[in-house]
Amino acid sequence: MPRQLLMGNQALALGALRAGVNLVSGYPGTPSTECLEHIAYLARQQNLKGLHVEWSTNEKAALEIAAGAAMSGARALATMKQVGLNVALDAMMSLPYLGLSGLVLLVADDPGPFSSQTEQDTRQIAEFIKVPLLDPSTPEEALEMMSAAFEISEEFSTPVIVRPVTRVSHGAVDLDASLDYQPHPVAGFDSKRNWVVLPGRAYLGHTEIVERMIKLTAFSSTSPFNHMEQTGPSSTPAHLGIVAGGLSWAYLKDAIAQLGYVGQLRLLKVGMPVAFPDSLALKFLNGLSEVLVFEELDSVIERRLLELVGRQRLPTKIFGRQTKTIGHAGESSTTTIAKHVLDFLSVEGAGKPVTASILDSAPPLPPRPPMLCAGCPHRASFYAVKQALKGRKANFSGDIGCYTLGSAVPLKMVETCVCMGSGFTVPQGMAWAEPDAVHIGFLGDSTFFASGITGVVNAVYNQANVTLVVLNNSLTAMTGGQPHAGTGERMAAEQVSGSKAKNTAADNALGIATILKACGVACVIEADPLDQKVAIEAIKQAVDFQGTSAVVFSSPCINIMDKAPALHIDPAACNNCKRCVFLLGCPALLAEKPKVRIDSNTCNGCGLCAQVCPKDAIGEQP
Q1: CATH fold of 3-222, please?
Q2: Omega of the bond leading into 247 within 30 degrees of 0 (cis)
Q3: Is the confidence at residue 56, as pLDDT, over 70?
Q4: Which is nearest to 427 in space by CA: 385, 394, 379?
């Protein structure tokens, strides 16, 4: 059998395919993106039949499409990151009321966070929605859980969430990657069932959900993803216990091994925290005096243990985030958990661990703030807006994407960033509150289709005096260059989706300017941001328009362009004013002695710095 080195998301993809998934939909978002991409890759590579894979317009659309497939008897998977679940939550709240089978959500959480605007815990949402959640501790277990999730969904007629965190999604694993894809048989839509969530159905559905969670709680205590074990001789009863959920379990086991601990500890692994394994947890708590809880991110397990201790009037003390024994924010590591374990084992009679080099503090890494790439067209767009509005009172609202980095110096052109789509709606509120200022909203092309069009309609309908700027670089850049409706390219190959259409990407592409005009925006201007004179004039014209105006700055991301020859600074013409460095912040511009230099390995030849230089000292290599 072939073995391959896979990342966690690829292992999750393999698990879904081995389960016979029929439809996979999603919206790209780190750290979840590679799961759908790997499914599509394997589908194309192995010419899999009976499978449809797509990047949907946003997470809400992805979930509803997956739900429709599940209603027709298919096994369906929707993929997203944790903030994407917020977008899909409207649908997700209703789906458990329908008794839906065969629907699984991959929701990747981002402790840290590494690439998110929130550090939310999907386990909390699963409890709120009342659906089961599986929390893998390793990429290997993630594969197993993905397959099991479909079985649980069908056994209990409920959507199921699989929640890998970043280190699991992006972790590496060497495993058997063989695949004999057998699509799940699709029975077809059962029109005799009641799929309509009206108040009467919601009342009955709520009762069914409560009863279902009771059954799932019993199931959770017997699930192989939850289990209890003990270190040291079993003949000696332990009086200390440690509970760990998800990735924290892997860290805990590693920490205990590296500490060389030889005493007695009772351990509880919680891989299915929702529904919580009450019976197994009570068995674990029996006879313990103190328990330490490790989990990312919130106190989900800890609160359930406290509830059981209180309800059963047990003498056990629970330590974790609620007691401030462990911090509330950020991800864990083997080292941090080892330190907490050592503190916990300072209790009398706990045994003597052997401290290992694991506790040695490594020097901190130097700070490496994110920045726009050399040659990124967003830098040119921001600079053009800044020049066009010089001396005017203006506010700049941004959004989620590469262009969020426009908030950093020296550009400082993104002053707000809330969530996807807010770049077009937040400035409308500002415009009503502060009518004497100019209000600019920035949005990327993928975000425009995902959640920006509603904001456009709202601005036109309510006659907001704002300028909406679409930064169109022809892909979803921040998450790896995925296509969207504006590119016309689709994730699924024809042989994957079974489509007979022969349309090219250009035929399928939706024009941003056309949509803006169709929404009623009377002033829509298209410009290339790398042509600064044209770009600056476009902004001036749009801002002077009374009402809702829009500018579409179109220039491809450097990752899909052939690299142009690097530019060169003529040392004889350069007066070392460093204007190019201080105004643009391009990483290819190096403020070295005796004069500024362009790094030829980094420069993409966009020409923006040449347009900024007051001495015409920048040009092509002579």
Answers
A1: Rossmann fold (3.40.50)
A2: no
A3: yes
A4: 394
